[in-house]
Write a structure and sequence with these properties.
390 residues; alpha/beta; Dehydroquinate synthase-like, alpha domain; 2 domains; 46% helix; globular
């Protein structure tokens, strides 16, 4: 077998396992004496975890300022407020505790607090963040975004209804704390949407034109873990074993995303949630996936066949063409099992607005890395297919 040259880079120190939050204070103290803690408002269900994190930081001798104004689909306004607090506090380290929104906000704050302009000036296609970027510690409380091990921070410039991302090695968290005990309080809908997000990260990294043997190995493992553990977890949210499996799947999928990337669905999904911030990222991805799989499958038969055999073992003796086609059906079934068989109409997106989604979908480079690259006309047709769901 000939293995093509590839790179794999992961500078984040991963601290995985039950009870690992207890190490937060000592870990943060490595970077200085002043910490900015970045979270959603300190209320249930994360209130106790936020309080514990602050206590751990203070017990390790750090002066803590708490920015608790993280919003879903983080906005440039929220990030700017956090950066101002980081500068005022003279923070040495930024600790993002929560789901993807908190961790992405922490990364963007780490850039904006130490650079001229705003985080929007450091998007993937603009200026590059420098070594002045504050170190970030990511503490994940959901299993899905993978942000704790990636160099990506998503942000929405609300007045323009645009959602894009920063992407640079300076944004990799220095330390990721992955403690499944922190995920026990995630509600069913959050668990479903973030778990689906992890599945898409793994699948799209597997399909990505820049995928590698290393990424494909991790991606298939993550896909299998989500398929096996997410549906039962939704019926038993307090099951720590299932939470641990999903936390590991999320981490694997994040490692895949950091070293390959995502494809067409994320271009579409980010355009949707940028224009309608009330739509969660996982929801937007769920709405576009059935059309995406059928559009892409003919250009990636071996990959879809391999995934189909993970989702349904009875496909092990079936020809690749048939296994690949059935893979699309198996992904549909997974969406139904986790309660995400939804359409754009279900998300309240008017048919008249679909044309406005084409341009932002094409600005994000992700769609170019799909095995089958869509034109603007094809993206519009795909969106039309996503409009209603039978």
């Amino acid at each position: 077998m000939t293995v093509k040259p590839f790179n794999y880079y992961q500078p984040t120190e991963i601290r995985f396992g039950r009870g690992r939050l207890r190490q937060l204070g000592k870990a943060a103290a490595r970077f200085g004496r002043r910490a900015l803690l970045v979270t959603v408002p300190a209320a249930e269900p994360l209130g106790p975890a936020i309080d514990k994190a602050r206590t751990l930081l203070e017990s390790a001798g750090l002066a803590v300022a708490h920015f608790d104004r993280v919003v879903p689909n983080p906005t440039t306004d929220s990030i700017a407020a956090g950066a101002a607090l980081a500068r005022e506090h003279r923070a040495d380290v930024v600790v993002g505790l929560g789901g993807g929104s908190s961790m992405d906000t922490a990364k963007a704050i780490a850039v904006e607090a130490t650079h001229p302009g705003t985080c929007w000036d450091y998007l993937f296609d603009k200026a590059e963040p420098t070594e002045k970027t504050l170190p970030v510690i990511a503490v994940s409380t959901t299993s899905g975004t993978g942000s704790h091990v990636t160099q990506v921070a998503v942000a929405t410039q609300t007045p323009r209804e645009e959602k894009f991302y920063l992407c640079h090695p300076q944004l990799f968290p220095r330390i990721a704390v992955v403690d499944p005990e922190l995920m026990l309080t995630a509600p069913r809908q959050v668990t479903s949407m973030t778990g689906w997000d992890a599945f898409t990260h793994a699948l799209e990294a597997y399909l990505h034109k820049s995928s590698s043997p290393y990424v494909r190995l991790l991606a298939l493992e993550a896909i299998g873990l989500v398929a096996a553990h997410l549906p039962p977890l939704l019926e038993d949210l307090g099951n720590l074993e299932l939470r641990s499996a999903m936390a590991w799947a999320d981490t694997l999928a994040g490692l895949c995303m950091a070293n390959a990337g995502v494809t067409l669905p994320h271009s579409l999904g980010m355009a949707i949630s940028g224009r309608w911030p009330r739509v969660a990222h996982g929801q937007s991805l769920a709405a576009v996936y059935p059309a995406f799989t059928r559009y892409t499958c003919p250009a990636a038969i071996p990959q879809f066949a391999a995934v189909g055999r993970i989702l349904n073992r009875e496909l092990s003796g079936v020809a690749d063409d048939d296994a690949a086609a059935q893979c699309c059906v198996e992904i549909d079934l997974l969406l139904k099992r986790i309660g995400l068989w939804i359409s754009l109409e279900d998300l309240g997106i008017p048919a008249a607005e679909l044309d406005a989604l084409v341009a932002p979908s094409l600005r994000l480079p992700d769609y170019r890395h799909n095995p089958r690259v869509a034109s603007g006309e094809e993206i519009r047709a795909l969106l039309e297919e996503c409009r209603v769901r039978s």
